[in-house]
Amino acid sequence: MQKIEAVIQPSKLDAVKDALLEVGIEGMTILEARGHGRQKGHTEFYRGREYTVDLLPKIKLEMVVPDELVEKAVQAILSSARSGKIGDGKIFISKIDEAIRIRNDERGPSAL
Amino acid sequence: MHPRIVKLFLALVLCTGSLFPAFAQTPAASAGSTADQLAKLQTQVANAQSSADNAWMLVSAALVLMMTGPGLALFYGGLVRKKNVLATMMQSFAMMAIITVLWALVSYSLAFDSGTSFIGGLHHIFLRGVGLVPDTDYSATLPLQTFMIYQLMFAIITPALITGAFAERMKFSAMALFLILWSIFVYSPMAHMVWGKGGFLNASLGGRFPTLDFAGGTVVHVTSGVSALVCALYLGKRVGYPKEAMPPHSVVLSFIGACLLWVGWFGFNAGSALGSGPLATSAFVNTHFGAAGAALSWMLAEWIRSGKPSALGGISGAVAGLVAITPAAGFVQPMSAIVIGLLAGAFCYFMVIKVKNWFGYDDSLDAFGVHGAGGTLGAVLTGLFASSAINPIFKDAQGNTLPSGAVDGNWHQVLNQLVGIGLAWIISIVGTLILLKLVDLTVGLRVSRDQETEGLDLTQHGEEGYDFAS
């Protein structure tokens, strides 16, 4: 089992969700986040005062998937979230030791 | 038959039936003498005019109240950080309650009783003698209570305007005490001098230096704006200003508030005609043109300087224009109103964007930059543009109309305006300083540093404006 965390542009959420569903990912958690990488923020003016907004709104997706689905999921995100411009986001992948379904104690990949 | 049609038919029958007796009465009524008839007719005409004026003035009073709540409350509330939104709105709302009671107890009398040249007497405390019969010095057609309640709405919004200068850092208790004292010792005398019987600056009731102030350029905007500057200087900056970013938390709220102010201002200015005649139309038209001119010039100035016309700039400009046209509303031609608006938008933009930063004071929501600066400019321009063709306010002993402002050739009026403005500045600076000192020594003005960081909503009122978790 592996965990995929992807930070994407909020406008790409629907496309990414559809693409993940198509490759068979059934569950995910979505967080509204703020952040920036190499992409710098923008400036706003209120009554002549300049404000730099460097933390921009982003969406973070989290999902834990069986090993054989990881590459498909990554490809799905890459193809659906990419605009080619700076600020498209990042994907992080890590190992997961255990998954437990709260409803019935089920453990391992079948709990996903 | 359909029940609705039956009802309609019945209504028609009733209407026609009630017409016939009226026809029958016509010959009977002509039996009285011509003199009686004329007297009756005169009373009816007077009653009709009184009703027409009263209807407009009651609507105007409600419009002016709407300027404070929700207008100003939203305008200011949107400009602060979200931890202070309720506290800021409460400062405006509190005036609606506090000043109302104060007005009945003592301050109406201090403003509008005859008294001396500088302050009214105490004959009307507890609203004694303020009934439904007109006071002909103020208005021959309005019940005195209509005049009283209309003037109250001005007394409410004026201290509420000051709250923009000390937003996000003053104790609620200190704010309430200070503004009660301010209303008694600064607003009432100033209102008396300009609008009260025998007032030092009163243009229509024989003042020493007749200052033209149609709807409160000096009484409302110069006093509140200049006092706001004194407050900002006395209280000092907010914690973190100007290093920390303090952008408005919701320009949307401010936008709604400013548009309500624009609409409410028709009551403020056109209502100041104290009647529903042509003068009200003139003030209404000028108010609108002034607001539009200033919205335009602020946005253009911003567009040129920072590359984009902003929503906040547009609405700030509109308010600046409304402020500047206030003293001029019932005195100038519509084209002059546009010019006054255009000048006010650019001037207030310059005051808010440049001058504030040069001196470094924290007039948090620009109460001085908009009301103090716009009010002063408007009062000067009123002396320039006042036209006797619109409002023949000055007359000689024979009743002939004399020139009003500089456009009529009466340059002396500009000097009179400067006397009025100067007096408003002095009474505001001195009065506000003394009262702030007094409140500072007794209850203390500012919240603690920790409370300021936590926000006034929680620390002063135990509430939060936005609780999305529940």
UniProtKB/TrEMBL annotation, chain A:
Any one GO cellular component localisation term in the record: cytosol
Keyword Transferase: no
Biological process annotations from GO: regulation of nitrogen utilization
GO molecular function: ATP binding; enzyme regulator activity
InterPro entries for this protein: N-reg_PII, N-reg_PII-like_a/b, N-reg_PII/ATP_PRibTrfase_C, N-reg_PII_CS
Stored SMART domains: P-II (SM00938)
Keyword tags: Phosphoprotein
Residues with O-UMP-tyrosine modification: 51
Family: Belongs to the P(II) protein family.
Official protein name in the record: P-II family nitrogen regulator
Source organism of the structure: Alloacidobacterium dinghuense
